[in-house]
């Protein structure tokens, strides 16, 4: 009787073992496929992130300092009239500007670093414009630690100089307002638009087209980093002010 039961168990094992083996092999095959699929998704995600980062850095490098030769001419003028203190301050500001400009390879930086970069730019421009231009700047202390893409502020401000103040005569004003709200960072930069212009109608049209390139660059970078649904980017252009407003997650 015992031998019969042992024989039956043996037969049962012979029948079940291949089924269990096939099940285990199928499970292992599916598991390995799942791992391969996850690894492939990970590689694709890393490639996508690398490509996105490369695109952002490429857009950063497209922003070239328009004022370079003007800054050199201003420094040369200071040297000729022997204003040594202003000359040294101008050279230091220019060195700070280019150190930040070409040594920064981060996708995001603290706002306080961008503000320091902008200050060096404004100091250089002050050598050229002097008392003709008044800068009003408010930066909320709570916003200084917020991470933003580099060159955002500087590009907008450079546009104000290049396409605004340099194209007009008479006094002008630049307003920089940055505040951290509940869930987003508010950036508003506007410049006055004097009524008396020194450009022809054709030159004004060409200038407006060029102005759009730098701002479009900013919009593309913001969309790449935050996504289209997470940002606000608006431009208001009226008779008195040219205003750029940005909301990004804080």
Key structural traits:
2 domains, Heat Shock Protein 90, five-stranded mixed beta sheet, two-stranded antiparallel sheet, 250 residues, elongated, 6 helices, alpha+beta
Report on this structure.
By secondary structure, the protein is an alpha+beta fold. The protein folds into two domains: 1-61; 63-249, Histidine kinase-like ATPase, C-terminal domain (Heat Shock Protein 90). It contains six helices and seven strands, in the order αααβαββαββαββ. It has helices at 2-61, 68-80, 84-103, 111-129, 152-163, 201-226, and strands at 109-110, 133-139, 147-148, 172-180, 184-192, 232-237, 241-249. Strands 2-4-5-7-6 form a five-stranded mixed β-sheet, covered by helices on one side. Strands 1-3 form a two-stranded antiparallel ribbon. A hairpin with a 3-residue loop joins strand 6 (232-237) and strand 7. The N and C termini lie far apart (80 Å). Residues 198-207 have low confidence and may be disordered. The chain crosses the membrane at residues 7-31. Keywords: Coiled coil, Membrane, Transmembrane, Transmembrane helix. Residues 28-62 form a coiled coil.
């Amino acid at each position: 009787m015992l031998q019969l039961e042992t024989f039956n168990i043996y037969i049962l094992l012979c029948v079940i073992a291949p089924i269990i083996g096939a099940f285990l092999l199928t499970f292992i095959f599916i598991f390995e496929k799942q791992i391969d699929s996850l690894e492939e998704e990970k590689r694709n995600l890393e490639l996508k992130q690398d490509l996105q980062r490369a695109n952002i850095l490429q857009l950063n490098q497209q922003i070239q300092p328009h004022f370079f030769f003007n800054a050199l001419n201003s420094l040369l003028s200071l040297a000729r009239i022997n204003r040594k203190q202003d000359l040294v301050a101008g050279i230091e500001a220019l060195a700070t500007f280019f150190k930040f400009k070409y040594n920064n390879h981060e996708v995001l930086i603290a706002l306080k670093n961008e503000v320091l970069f902008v200050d060096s730019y404004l100091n250089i421009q002050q050598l050229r414009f002097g008392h003709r231009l008044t800068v009003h700047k408010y930066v909320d202390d709570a916003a200084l630690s917020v991470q933003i893409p580099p060159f955002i502020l500087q590009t907008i401000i450079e546009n104000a100089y290049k396409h605004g103040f340099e194209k007009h005569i008479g006094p002008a004003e630049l307003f920089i307002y940055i505040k951290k709200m509940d869930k987003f960072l508010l950036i508003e930069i506007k410049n006055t638009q004097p009524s008396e212009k020194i450009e022809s109608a054709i030159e004004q049209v060409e200038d407006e087209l060029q102005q759009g390139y730098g701002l479009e660059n900013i919009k593309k970078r913001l969309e790449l980093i935050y996504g289209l649904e997470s940002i606000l980017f608006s431009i208001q252009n009226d008779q008195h002010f040219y205003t750029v407003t940005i909301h990004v997650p804080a």
